[in-house]
Amino acid sequence: SAPSDLTMVGAYLENRLPPSLGVPEVAFLGRSNVGKSSLLNKLVSKAGGDTARVGKTPGATASVNLYALLGPKRYGGNSNSGTLGAKPILGFADLPGFGYARLSKDSKQSVEEAAERYLGKRRELALGILLVDSRREPNADDRAVLAALYDMGVPLIVVATKCDKLNANEVELAMGTIRDGLGLPDEQPLRISAVTGEGIRDLWGIILDACEM
Ligand code: GDP
Q1: Which ligand 1 atom lies nearest to the CA of residue 193?
Q2: Residues lining ligand 1, CB < 6 A?
Q3: What is the pLDDT of residue 77?
Q4: Domain 5-210's class?
Q5: Which of 76, 103, 162, 167 lies at a 20 to 30 A Cα distance from 134?
């Protein structure tokens, strides 16, 4: 049945890793403003969650921000027992610092360290989702992030965000540019829009496959 909520587990810096939730995790990567929070919210609402609101983490330039997608709330047998609590069924890790952070050298280092540690060591990590804006040509940052993920052996899908901002011809052209620029297989990038919902079902399918759910 439908998950009910997305809840922040915590933000983690430097060499700390979040506590394990005991469920698979999906990591989201991309430059700021690419549409990451919008995509997360859309994924959760499509899954039946109604109260999810992923926003900018206040004050945190970056780190590993872990969210838990919670299953349905369970209720006890009598009126006194109340809610037994919802169990996490999937983790979403937002890695805002990885590859794209515009930070001072020092904080950039500690932020990237956190994300790198997460990507390289996290047992629960089942899939990385790299977001690129459908209207932008991939640049050296995008290529470096992709190369780093391949090196670390992270299973990866590239999605092109905000496809609703282009017409059909423009989308075709843009997907070719991104595919060539990043050296992607024919079926990537996956076209998505947090506004129209395009690609969200497909992305859920890919997530569930990767998580063997
Ligand atoms: P983040 O910084 O990567 O988390 O990006 P946000 O999700 O906050 O999105 C940045 C801006 O792009 C906001 O103004 C969003 O409303 C807009 N945006 C995000 N996704 C889409 C989309 O699929 N279509 C359109 N038209 N706008 C989008």
Answers
A1: 23
A2: 32-38, 161-162, 164-165, 193-195
A3: 52
A4: alpha beta
A5: 103
